[in-house]
Design brief:
single chain; alpha+beta; Lipocalin; twelve-stranded antiparallel beta barrel; seven-stranded mixed β-sheet; 24 strands
């Protein structure tokens, strides 16, 4: 059984249950069956739908004593009630997915023959149905994996690049006054020869923008509706100065998500080209940076029966205004477009096409207040509003954060921060720790 057989697993799990109760309010999914005639009700919940379906297909565990029954049933998927329904009468099964308007009848000479026809259809001909189903779940579920909420792959990608590329390094905001002899003026040897110090022409030294590599660790917990979970991310961002006004930023990321015991993992890569239209120095109090970027990320969950490959492109505009030598304010705006890619997978001599149907615009708008607490210490507070511009379960959410930076040595620093995200029926707390090495 492969994870792209999720819909087949769902339908088979619905049709092969004994009667009883084994569900909890916050299960990632639950199946409810009502026996025709007696009205007996079964409700089974869990965190791993494909595993339950595998037992059903192989008649193991709770399914060993199953005997053919007529019943009606429904699947609740990630908080979406009645995501899939089935009606089993005699040797005929009617399967419906209300959110996409899908309905099909499978008829055989027996229950088992009907199951075989159902499995054959949903493992070989349902790739388009699968994509439509996941797309609708992203619009309805507050914890869908690929899109539509703060923990989804699209939102986490947009969030990661927003903070790594949109937040100007403190050393590029609070630029120290360093003077060097004016070109063509007196040199240090001339000064030693007797030229008075105040007679040597000097000018501000050109500021060398931040460049380096960092190790980023972040994680936290969240509550979405009746569901609770945890997340973690590890990233390695890098920035290189390639020309006077242009940098190259690269980053690799891996992440982990857990919701009510169901797990998901992801990896990603991003590239950005920050263009410094204005750069601050001791006399110029303004930074203006425009950074176009592109990302690719992959996420997968066997437990949730979901995942996909998603690319994104967008741009970040950052304006930094240094009020004085101790305080600065920044405005950060980002827009990005996220689109899933269809993948073809060969399995057991068959070809399957996988596409979660993601097509999403996300905007992020932030206000940052930065403070220089001394030569080696800085702090920042920020507020960010995130909007999903296409239909989703969570329309927008707000992030509030606070962080402290310690420049331990000229080429080494540490950053520790925390953030709180909130929206209607959603909240999360997170922490971030960064080790940064300056080139």
């Amino acid at each position: 059984m492969n994870k792209h057989l999720f819909l087949s697993c769902s339908f088979l799990a619905l049709t092969l249950q004994p009667f009883g109760t084994n569900a909890h309010a916050a299960d990632a999914f639950s199946i409810t069956l009502t026996k025709t005639g007696s009205g007996d009700i079964l409700q089974i919940g869990g965190k791993t739908l494909p595993d339950l379906a595998r037992d059903a297909v192989r008649s193991k565990g709770l399914f060993a004593d199953f005997d053919g029954l007529d019943f009606s049933g429904s699947l609740d998927y990630l908080g979406v009630r009645g995501a899939i329904t089935i009606e089993m009468v005699a040797n005929s099964a009617t399967v419906e997915i209300p959110s996409i308007g899908f309905s099909r009848v499978f008829t055989g000479t027996s229950h088992e023959a009907a199951y075989d026809k159902m499995e054959d259809f949903f493992t070989k001909e349902s790739s388009e149905i699968y994509g439509k189903f996941l797309r609708q779940m992203a619009r309805r579920s507050i914890i869908a994996l690929t899109d539509g909420n703060p923990m989804a792959s699209t939102a986490r990608t947009a969030n990661s690049i927003f903070f790594s590329e949109g937040f100007t390094h403190f050393s590029d905001i609070f630029v120290p006054e360093i003077y060097v002899p004016t070109h063509g003026g007196a040199t240090a040897s001339q000064a030693e020869a007797g030229t008075p110090a105040d007679a040597i022409p000097v000018e501000l030294a050109p500021h060398k923008r931040f460049g380096g590599i960092a190790l980023d660790f972040s994680g936290g917990s969240f509550k979405a509706g009746d569901f609770k979970g945890n997340y973690a991310e590890f990233a390695i961002p890098m920035r290189f100065r390639i020309a006077r006004p242009v940098d190259l930023s690269l980053a690799v990321r891996s992440n982990y998500l857990e919701v009510e015991g169901a797990q998901a993992v992801g990896i990603g890569f991003s590239a950005a080209l920050p263009i410094h239209i204005f750069s601050a120095n001791a006399q110029n109090f303004c930074n203006w940076t425009l950074a176009p970027f592109s990302t690719t990320s992959a996420t997968a969950s066997w437990d949730l029966g979901s995942g996909g490959l998603i690319w994104a492109t967008g741009a970040i505009n950052t304006l930094d205004f240094r009020i004085n030598k101790h305080f600065a304010v920044s405005l950060i705006n980002q827009i990005s477009y996220h689109k899933s890619v269809e993948l073809s997978v060969n399995y057991d001599s068959d070809e399957y096409k996988l596409d979660p149907g993601v097509s999403q615009w996300i905007s992020k708008n932030g206000l940052r207040l930065a403070a220089s607490l001394g030569e080696s210490f800085q702090a920042e507070a920020y507020a960010v509003e995130t909007f999903f511009l296409k239909e989703t379960a969570v329309k927008d959410y707000t992030t509030l954060g606070l962080a402290f930076n310690w420049q331990v040595a000229r080429s080494f620093g540490m950053r520790l921060g925390g953030n709180y995200d909130f929206a209607s029926d959603y909240s999360s707390f997170g922490a971030n720790f960064r080790l940064q090495f300056k080139f």
